[in-house]
Amino acid sequence: MGHLDHATFGWLTPVLSYAMACIGSALGLCCTVRALGAEGRSRRNWLVTAASAIGTGIWTMHFVAMLGFGVTGTEIHYNVPLTMLSLLGAVVVVGAGVFAVGYGRDRGRALAIGGLTTGLGVASMHYIGMAALRMHGEVRYDPVLVGLSVVIAVIAATAALWAGLNIKSPLAVAGASLVMGGAVSSMHYTGMLAVSVRVTPSGAALPGATTMQFIFPLAVGLGSYLFLTCAFVALSPTEGEREASVSAQRPAETAV
Fold this sequence. Notes:
By secondary structure, the chain is mostly helical. It is built from eight helices and six strands, in the order βααββααββααβαα.
């Protein structure tokens, strides 16, 4: 059995991955709150932004954490198409859950469907990403811990969507995002505890890309996207601010 190390860089990757999960959650919650206060095309656009933020944040969290994952006796490479599929799948499935909440008439039912869909999407992203691993050996999973990680993902997703429906103040959103970041990180590391590797020593070259060739630059790029989107959301006026601006302009127009 190969010895697994989930933090080859110490606390750096766990802390950074938690931060990325929190940023993605906070951004997704803010966009969902904006969407619920908007109508028409504006609501759709905010929901798309929320889905991309949450999906990207969770994916970045997973692969930043994976930068610290190592197995003695073998290098680790990644299958590029499968890794990209995990990113696309995360955004699409999270989007389905967010839209279910954003357009659902029965909020309780929409929350249940959206939470289940989004949670399964998060879990699928994790395990598709794990399927992209290429190493000299066989990866095995503890089914009990795998099941637990999926349950955590569904609970975390449902809690996030509930927060989007019920939390409005910036302070509450910040607190909810910290909790959500912890829940997503817990799901990841629970899934990683389910992993064991039987190493088969070999001198053959591994297919795929190394973490520094592919995962690191992509994670940096997606992290930059999250920060830029945060700035865009922070500078965008809320529906209330827009209505106040319109109301303030009407008396001036009437006076003229």
